[in-house]
Specification:
The chain has twelve helices and no strands. It is an all-alpha fold and 304 residues long. The two termini are 29 Å apart.
């Protein structure tokens, strides 16, 4: 049984991960000021894939998965890594770190909807209320941000982030079969490596334009921070939390990420924080909490 009542050392790790993921949006956003989004994503993802592969080997001493799963691995790699991450990083270059964090915080809501569509989940009235409340929160954030944007509308970037969230939700629903046949870390490792070549390939035109000698330390720091902490160490601690204290308690820490992202974007990037954005954030988080209630089979994935 999970020790869900007492404070565990893993709780400190999960708290640190929530802060890392929350600050990560601003760190990546700052790096995108110097690098094209797909080029940045290709470099940091290859690094992150190497970190995750190394950590998985250290922790599990076995990287093998059943041969019958490789087709599913490549499908999940395309949907949950290639498409999701390409849309995420391109969207972040066109919208704010705050908007991105709030839209992606609603991934569990999209997951619940797709679960209901394929009849792997059954939504109660409370779940449906959570779905509607989360969508209302996203609407408030997106509509208000686009209206007050200083340099053009953020709507295109916001819509790319919605598409990114949808892709990752589809990935979570489809990944249940893979999760039942291997460990979470091995599943993550191989879906990442199946996606890495394509992410590099689509980034080649942008990679050719980068003058690596002129990149400042924030750009290099953003790539290193994203590869090692956000994706690598962050995901390992997250899955350790699911194993040690259960997915429900681990998921609670994800609610800290949007407030941290909002505060850090305000302090570090100077992004304005309006009352409507705060109300939208509250609506999204309360909606996610309601949408998750009673859905014990809903997977809880890490952050990319």
């Amino acid at each position: 049984m999970h020790k869900t009542q007492r404070f565990q050392p893993i709780d400190l790790g999960l708290l640190a991960v929530a802060v890392i993921w929350g600050t990560g949006y601003s760190v990546v956003k700052a790096a995108l000021g110097e690098m094209p989004p797909l080029a940045f994503n290709a470099v940091r993802f290859v690094g992150a894939s190497s970190v995750v592969l190394t950590l998985t080997w250290i922790l599990e001493r076995d990287l093998s998965i059943p041969r019958r799963l490789w087709g599913l691995v490549f499908l999940l790699g395309f949907v949950g890594q290639t498409a999701h991450l390409a849309l995420y990083v391109k969207g972040l270059s066109l919208t704010t770190a705050t908007n991105t964090s709030l839209i992606l915080a609603a991934i569990p809501i999209f997951t619940a909807l797709f679960g209901a569509l394929n009849r792997s989940e059954r939504l109660s009235r409370r779940n449906w209320a959570g779905v509607l409340l989360s969508f209302l929160g996203i609407f408030l954030v997106v509509s208000r941000s686009s209206a007050v944007a200083q340099s053009g509308s953020t709507l295109v970037g916001d819509m790319l982030e919605v598409a990114s969230a949808v892709c990752f939700a589809v990935y979570l629903v489809l990944s249940k079969r893979l999760a039942a046949s291997t460990t979470a870390l091995k599943a993550t490792t191989w879906t990442m490596w199946s996606a890495a070549p394509l992410l590099v390939l689509i980034a080649v035109p942008e990679l050719r334009t980068v003058d690596w000698r002129t990149l400042s330390w924030p750009a290099w720091f953003g790539m290193a921070y994203s590869a090692t902490l956000i994706i690598g160490v962050g995901n390992v601690i997250w899955y350790a939390g699911v194993k040690e204290v259960g997915s429900a308690r681990t998921a609670l820490y994800s609610y800290l990420t949007p407030p941290v992202a909002l505060l850090f974007a305000w302090a570090f990037l100077g992004e304005g924080v309006t009352l409507v954005q705060v109300l939208g954030m509250v609506a999204v988080l309360v909606g996610v909490a309601l949408g998750r209630q009673g859905m014990t089979r809903q997977p809880h994935a890490g952050r990319f």
